[in-house]
Amino acid sequence: MFAVTILGSNSALPMHDRHPTCQVITAGDELLLIDCGEGAQSQMNRFKIRRSRINHIYISHLHGDHYFGLPGLLNSFSLTNRKDPIHLYAPAELKPILDLQFDAAQAHLSYSLIFHELKEEKEITDLKKFSIKAFRVSHRIECWGFLIQEKEKPKKIDTDRALDFDVPSSFFPQLKEGKDYMHVSGRLVKNEWVTKAANPSRSYAFCADTRFDPEIANKIRSCNLLYHEATYLDDLREKAEDRFHSTAKQAAKMALLAEAKHLLIGHFSSKYDELAPFLTEASALFPQTELAIEGASYLIRD
Amino acid sequence: MFAVTILGSNSALPMHDRHPTCQVITAGDELLLIDCGEGAQSQMNRFKIRRSRINHIYISHLHGDHYFGLPGLLNSFSLTNRKDPIHLYAPAELKPILDLQFDAAQAHLSYSLIFHELKEEKEITDLKKFSIKAFRVSHRIECWGFLIQEKEKPKKIDTDRALDFDVPSSFFPQLKEGKDYMHVSGRLVKNEWVTKAANPSRSYAFCADTRFDPEIANKIRSCNLLYHEATYLDDLREKAEDRFHSTAKQAAKMALLAEAKHLLIGHFSSKYDELAPFLTEASALFPQTELAIEGASYLIRD
To answer: ipTM value of the model?
Structure first.
């Protein structure tokens, strides 16, 4: 399973029963948390997120609407006596803030909190079936996007054909790696005769908060699902640029530029109660668009 | 109007749709905020609290469930372009935490944030009709209680009698201050003949988080409404003492000792879904007890 569940879809001011940014990525057996706005814990309760399965937390930047729910979550992990370490990836300045908060509370966490400073565009997490890269986006302060990629999958064996060619099942693991089989008689069975290509690897790109920046397209090229912020509608494009945010139309433009397969837009300004105009505006340019709705899960599809 | 509205009644872990500690005191025209757990802003939206009327914020201590909603609230004040200053009363260690957070966000507040360090037991705020005192309670880390007292009220004029005695209405302000009236003829009108005693001044005491500590009774003597924490039921008295918390029975005992008129209990542990046993336990000892229910307002009565 590879999917994203939206816990918060709003920008800074909590309004219209929408919450600040927070997403949970289901990446196989792991849950990855991206950003952790205030109220993230309550949203996890509400949408039945199994928080014990979260081992990695990614914070894009240090505007409060992207991390003010984190100290409470880290405390709660300790109150429920968590033992597994948490890997936290964030701009360097988060560490002294958390340290001061723990000191002031005289808190001793029940688990290790391993802080990874974001400082270069590179792979930052290597899981069994997924890798996570950090890349820079273009916001008023240092801000990071994240690209979550499925690793290359092994080939699929066409069992009937492999048996037809008398390939013993003990050799199947090597078939998956692409090797040919040689019978003791010297007869060769070419790998492609008995295997099928694996399903292509999928990827999810998270881009918030950022103004429209064509350079980002190269960093997320051909992703299956692009989450891009769309704080405003395009009539407020100047305001968006001024505040280092994007419009729904610009999000769609980025999806086109990056040749993304699908687009998910969120981080809506509190000034908008109705979200339908965001979908109308973005899908006019990029039809495979969906609105980020809190509580909804979006599969990352081919 | 003198009342308290509960925005959060739970202890540290948000559960059972209860939230961490946060209260709004209506003190005449002013709203005073006591503690500001995570989600305080959403609770203010939900219960229609006019946050522009909040000028004073009191933070009892630096366990996260009492202040993790504060940075977001202070940010939101700025996003909505507030101009009036905010007076913030808290333990000293809160200031560098907020400063680091504002620095990391490169935030510039639209209003002055005036920080008052809590360090002695004394009057900390002097409003037109109310005064607020801070006093120490007994918790694992430095923790403060707050006593909000109506100032002494002017006497009430018995208008019919004042006219019978030919006291001119221009003298009524002095009558309220307790002065006698002397006619030009030399005839004296004693103040008590034409006035009635004012309604007695009322007071509200906030005590959380604290273990049962008899010394607190002297600091809140005869208050009209005592809010006292009741994290556990009395069968877990040892656990409560160990964690510097109180039981419902101990809260009732404090109300008796302090000769409070009414008792309000809150800060319930997340382990309890049902709250009725708290009311049963406390009111057995102190009948004038109520449960702190989120969204409910409690008048401070004689």
So the answer is: 0.86
Residues 8-37 of A with CB under 8 A from B: 12-15, 19-20
Place of tokens 């139309």: A249
What's domain B2-153+202-299's superfamily in CATH? Ribonuclease Z/Hydroxyacylglutathione hydrolase-like (3.60.15.10)
Q: Give DSSP secondary structure letters for A146-194.
A: EEEEEPPPPPEE-HHHHHHTT--GGGHHHHHTT--EE-TTS-EE-HHHH
What's the whole-number average pLDDT of chain A? Answer: 95
Q: Domain ranges in chain A?
A: 2-152+202-299, 156-196
Contact B42 A39 (CB under 8 A): yes
| pLDDT tens by residue, A242-282 | 999 999 999 999 999 999 999 999 999 999 999 999 999 99
The pLDDT, as a whole number, for residue A197 is 86
Q: Is A140 helix (H, G, I), strand (E, B) or coil?
A: coil
CA distance A77 to A58: 16
Tell me the nearest-neighbour CA distance from A31 into chain B, angstroms. 21
CB atoms within 10 A of CB B200: 12
Using pLDDT thresholds of 50, 70 and 90, give the confidence band for residue A63: very high
Q: Please give the distance of CA A161 from its chain centroid, rounded to a whole number.
A: 38
Q: What is the CA radius of gyration of chain A?
A: 22
The pLDDT score that the predictor gives to residue B200 is: 83
A48 touches chain B (CB under 8 A): no
What is the share, in percent, of chain A residues with pLDDT greater than 70?
Answer: 100
Are A27 and A58 contacting, i.e. CB atoms less than 8 angstroms apart? Answer: no
Chain A residues closer than 8 Å to B71 by CB = 64, 68
> What does DSSP say about strands A262-266 and B262-266: parallel, antiparallel, or unpaired?
unpaired
The pLDDT tens digits for A96-153 are: 999 999 999 998 999 999 999 999 999 999 999 999 999 999 999 999 999 999 998 8
pLDDT for res A218? 97
Question: A65 preceded by cis ω (within 30°)?
Answer: no
Determine the CATH number of domain A2-152+202-299.
Answer: 3.60.15.10
- Name the residue with tokens 């912020």: A229
Which residues in A lie closer than 8 A to residue B63 (C-beta atoms)?
A: 105
Structure tokens at B151: 């100032």
Task: Report whether pLDDT(A14) > 90.
Answer: no
Kindly give the pairing relationship between strand B262-266 and strand B289-291: parallel
With a CB cutoff of 8 Å and minimum separation 6, the contacts of A142 are A61, A62, A91, A136
Tens-place pLDDT, residues A90-100: 999 999 999 99
Residues of A in contact with B103 (CB under 8 A): 93
Contact between B275 and B232 under an 8 Å Cβ cutoff? The reply is no
Below-70 pLDDT ranges, chain B: none
- Of the candidates A1, A30, A47, A2, which has an alpha carbon nearest to the alpha carbon of residue A22? A47
pTM: 0.89
DSSP letter string, B184-229: TTS-EE-HHHHEEPPPPP-EEEEE-S----THHHHHSTT-SEEEEE
Closest CB from A79, A103, A104 relative to B13: A79
B145 touches chain A (CB under 8 A): no
